[in-house]
Amino acid sequence: MNHRIVLISMLLLSFLYAESQGVAASSEYIKELTSNWKGDRFDDGRPKVSDALLNRLKRIQIEEAWGYLRSKGYHNQYEGSWEIIHPESVMTGRVVTAQYMPLRPDYQQLVKVKGGKESRDTIGGSNSWPIEMLRPGDVYVADGYGRIIDGTLIGSNLGNAIYTNSKNGVIFDGGVRDLAGLLEIEGFNGWFRGEDPSYLQHEMLTSINTPIRIGRATVLPGDVVLANRHGTIFIPSHLVDKLVISSEVVGLRDQFGFQRLREKKYTPGQIDTKWTDAIDADFMNWLKNYPDSKLPMTRKELNDYFGSKK
Q1: Above 70 in pLDDT, residue 136?
Q2: A Pfam family name for this chain (predicted)?
Q3: Are residues 106 and 89 in the same domain?
C-alpha cells in the first residue's frame, strides 16, 4: 500500500513539474541559475548589469577577459571562428538565449501549445518569440547547432525587429539569410556561422532563456557577452564589474610597460615577467600622475581596487 502511495505521489509531482515548464524559463528558474548576482533584475529574472559597465566592457580585450575568467575557474566561456556583419565594431550586451533543434512534429506541437498558453503568436514562426522579449541592451544568442542551409534563423525583416527592440545584435550558432538587407540596418551587428538564401526549415525553437551551448562555451540567460573581430566571450553577470576593472588595470600596466620599454628604463625581460618591488613602486607613482580624464575608471574605483589587494 505504501509503495502505491509513493508511486502515485511521484507521478503527481512529475505531472505538476511538466505542467510548470513553458517555452520561456520562469523568473524563479533564472534567479536560481544566476544566484550569485546580488543586484537589480529584470521582470524575467535576468540580472540587470548596468549600461555603464556594458560600455566600459567594449574597451576590454578578449584575451584579458578570457584570462580573468580562467583565473576564476571559468574555462569554457569563449567561442571563435565567426562570420561577422561588421567586423570593425564591438558589441556588448545582456544575453537572451534560445535553443533550436531539428524538427520533431510531436515536440513542435507541444511547443506551440505551451507558446499559446504564454500568449505567444502561434500563427507565425516561433523564431520570432525570443525577439519579442528583447529589451534595449540585450543580445539575442541562439544555439542553432551550426546549421546554415535551411537553418537561417533571421533575415532582414527579423533583423530589423531585433534592432528595434534591443538596439543591438545577435550571436547565432547557425545561419542567416538576406545578408545584404542586414548590412543596411544601421547599428545592427551579428556573429554567425554562414549565410544562405534558404528559409528556416525542419528546425524548431524549443526553449527561451535556458542554458545553451555556443560552440565550446556554456551560456546562461543574463550572462554578459563581449563580441569583437577576435571572437565572443560570455561572462557570468556577477563577475562583470570585477572583470572590467581588473582588465582596465591590466591595460594601464601595459601602457606603463610599453612607455618604459620605449624609454629603455627597463629591459623586455624585466617587464615581461613578475615585476620587482621597484618596478611596482614606479608603476604606482606613474598612476598617481595619470590624468583622471583619461582613466577608464574613476580615481576612487582605482584606489579601491588597489586597496582591496592589500
Answers
A1: yes
A2: RraA-like
A3: yes
